[in-house]
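To whoever is covering the structure queue this week,

Two jobs came back overnight. Logging them here so there's a record in the thread.

Job A:
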Amino acid sequence: MEKIRREDFFKKMAIITVGAAVAPKLISANSLFDKFISNSNNEQKTVINENAIIDLHCHPSLKMYLWDKHLWKCHNPGPGTNEIAMQDDVKQLSSGYVKGLVVAHYLLEASSEKEWNLLKNFFPLLKKVLPKLVDKIEHEDYSNFTQINIMIDTMESQMHLANQKQHKIQFVVARDFSEFEQALQDGNIPIAHAIEGAHALGRNFPISERRTKDPSVPKGKMANVNETDINERSKFYIQNLEALKMRGVCMITIGHIFKNDIAFPTEGISPDEKINIGMSWEFSAESNRSLSDIGEVVVKKMLDIGIIVDLTHCAPAGRTRVFEINAGRANPRPLAFTHVGAQKVFEKYAKGAYPNYNYYNVSKEEIIAIEKCGGVIGVIPENFWLTGCDTHIKGVDAKTFKKGIKYIIETMLYINSVTEKKEFDTVAIGTDFDGFADAPKDLYVASQLGDLLKQMGDAGITQQQIKKITHKNAERLLQKGWGKQ
């Protein structure tokens, strides 16, 4: 029998392991359940529920871009992270519980290779076996901007094809709020482009690399430079920002899992998932940094031209600085947290187990600040960020955290209790569907949103208040934050 080298043995085992993990999902998502939607002219158009949501944060373009998934095909998602199967497709959106989408285009950060031990170990093999997939990870330079535009192009092309292949629902790309509003009035589903992670604007432009080596200056800041110099160093980021604005981008989540040239992150991956991927970085007091000098210029420009600043994933010090910048404007803009929980509710269940992770969520002071600027907080259907507990956390009753709707509603009620008016003017919904979020058993696809609406009513939230939560607040955010003042 021919002997196999140790190196070749581990490569073969790696391929077998990856294949065993991924192949069943690919088969179930593509071969067994991916059927074309009927193109019959007798098909009746979906009637949108009067309380249907405008989802402030979802990611269908991510799976289109990475896995070549198709919006018009049926998929087989389930509770959990759904790494392969799409959660938002024509079948699910035809349930009538979604009336508009803010699609966050997310370019997978290159730091994943360096920070995630699992990916680090497999990366040399992936480069050989799946070079095209590896090339879809951010390039960490000016071409990040090209990559994000390819992702936007992919989304728009699939919308066009989906409209041709079926008649139940029709998608419309909205380039500004008036187009978004018109699509809603016509009974179509408007899609507004958004970006998750300011690294999509590019990284490490040569003119931005001239940073101080003075240890007394906070990281991300530049010493002994005037405003003109900072603006000069920021010009490439601003050019790309303005180009995205012209494409119709309505919002940018300035921070994300890893630091970029604009903002610093807080925790964005639950502790159990970090163990699975072998990620050791943890948010701490030393990690809590404000915006970079370039970040300040970018945020001010976003507020000037009408791109909503999403504070989700941003370190608390950076969030505080954005609130300060916005409050100093003659006409403050509404700001947003699009997919978070509340620190108070998280503390109730986690009982101090994950204090650094809780900075992902909004504090009482931030809820007050959001109300003051007319912004919104989108509640995420992911139990760890709502409660600090889920089915993966050791030492808790997993059965208690299989379902999540009751924790979503508890978080909504708490956020409202902190506000001055207490009329649910600050609460919205951001599902994070298709973003690899660990969705609960009772809310992992759009067709289950009807159960959320029912339980909101059972909790004493009035029909008028439900409309605010599901779409009215989101419409106000888009109207006042997206475009000219």
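Job B:
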Amino acid sequence: MGGRACIRGMRITVSLIVNLVANGMSPEDIVGEYPDLEPEDIRQSLQYASALAYEEIGFVKSLAA
């Protein structure tokens, strides 16, 4: 998957899950579309994305200074 974070070794990326949630799909809808997923996979994907968004990026940090 080009080095992108995937769900438990599946060919389903974290970015896909985050995009689906951002576009209004519920965890139940997502699991319905991707039956190999579990609700916990969706929660973990959102936690991972949140952790990435929380990171301070040097370039942005230097602009704020």
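Note for Job B: The mean pLDDT is 84.

Please reply-all if you pick these up so we don't duplicate work.
Q.
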